[in-house]
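ok trying this again, last paste got cut off
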Amino acid sequence: MTAPRIMVALFGPPGQGSFNESGYDGAMRARAAGHSLEVHWIAPLAAEDRADALRTLCKQSPDLLVAHGGQGDEPVKLIHQESPGTVFAITQGNFLAPNTACYEVLQEQSAFLAGVLAGLASKTGVVAHLSGEKVGPGLKGRAAFASGLKHIAPNCRFVTTFCGRQHDPDLAFESTRRLQGMGADLIFAMIDGGRPGVSRACQELPIRQIGNVLDWVTRDPAVFLASAVADSGRGLAQAIDDFAHGRLRTGVSVTYGLEQPDYVRLVVNAELSARFGPQITDWTARVAQGLVQVDTRYDGPEH
């Protein structure tokens, strides 16, 4: 029996950013599990250009094409009908069709916990959020972070911006500096290749960072107070494994949350864990059990 042809599309410059690192690691995890696959990096930003890149890949008749990230929603939407023989899986996306599926690691759950921690830990009473492109997962993560902050510290001021690019360190640095100038002493950075710019700002300014996707506390404890882990690469690997074993269901979204801590959790540094660990444990249980409403829409001001 011929093995299925599987392709993985990662959006952005090759090798940049924690989100794509997670996706690449997921692809390598799938390969280590015995699945043959190809990884393709797609650099353009515009959805139409990304769609053209996917269209080119589809001319090679893949059986499965995994588009990693919410950035894949619009490109797949534009081309899926042109390749009815290909199954598309979008990680962190929401576009569904007869030949598409979505695999989502619920970043909003760990982002909510990050908001709770920020409200407990902020000394200035001003907390910031920064992201790059306005795609679905980023918008939901921002809303959830604001929701957690509001639950624990309703009088805390929330300042937020999308700088427009995920992979521009200089732009991320200037955006962080502007938010710190508004009084923020903590920033939740949902950024990818631009993260070094945020970290540089945190080294030069009186502001500390909460990361996302990966465990940044272990990687850079001098800069990161916490990290809202959401390992989307595990969702990518699961999509490939499900397809290879005939378990992938098109037209369906598969989600993973705090009930699976390998996928989703909040990592907190030792100092804040000692101070706020019981509260975070309690909020984690409440979110996992569905006892608290995690907002995924934010209608407040943007800076």
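PB: full thing came through this time. The longest strand covers residues 224-230.
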